[in-house]
Amino acid sequence: LKIADGCYNHCTYCLIPKIRGKYRSFPKEDLLKEAQGLGDVAELILVAQDVTRYGKDLYGHYALSELLRAITDNTSIPWIRLLYCYPDKVTDELIAEIRDNPRVLKYVDLPLQHVSSRVLRAMNRHGDGPVVREVVRKLREQIPALTLRTTFIVGFPGESEEDFDELRAFVREARFEHMGVFPYSREEGTPAYDLPDQIDEQLKQDRVDALMRIQMDINREQNEQKLGRTLRVLCEAYDPVSEAYYGRSAADAPDIDGKVYFKSAARRMPGSFVDIRVDEVLDYDVYGTALDTQEEAK
Fold first, then answer.
1. Which of 127, 250, 281, 288 would bridge with 131, disulfide CB 3.0–4.6 Å?
2. How does pLDDT run across 63-75, given as a tens digit for each residue?
3. What is the pLDDT of residues 248-262, one digit of tens each?
């Protein structure tokens, strides 16, 4: 469910504000009607370039938590997920709504891009390194069993070894459940295109690889902690190659995170929820067995 269009952030590496214009929230009433009109869906994902800015232009304040309450009060959709929350706009009210609303998944996508204050200023990101660290600390502290996803850009013009070392240390410290890393891509028409100290492509890739090696170890350790545990899984389909069903837990967004593969003696329909015992892990995915083997009705 797209809750807004455009962007107000004007990051120096991005053309979206020029292409899509200023940030425009869609009225709560329209979004609620759209959510109600979706029918019997298992998961609703709220998206925008920055969902945390929602409502500021229409109502004079950040209204994402109000929108979440309206949707949960007026629909029966069991899973509601947020994508693209900006760190400087994660309010205490929003944290409380995510924590206390049982149908809002304890999953926050927080595209941080960097942690060095110097690089963040060059990117024209809102919030410096201390802001980034504080929002991660606060989210971890106030929302039990939270899943945090983030993205970083490495090789931004002028990124020094010291800047990268700070980012590498932060990745080890924060232990994100999901993380994507991208080499800076020079885009004509953006302010960053003409910045001095452009970085060699091979060095960019080396920095991507260095961060992803750390993240792979973190993900392996986190998945190993799931062994023997029970996960609630949203079934997506059957894979005839592996002869197993697959789906996602609440900790996994579609297309970008890992999957849960599972064996089941009973037929499982796409869109149904299944309790899975985790038996095995491999990189970013886990494998398990359905605990309820009763035949499901169509």
1. 127
2. 999 999 999 999 9
3. 999 999 999 999 999
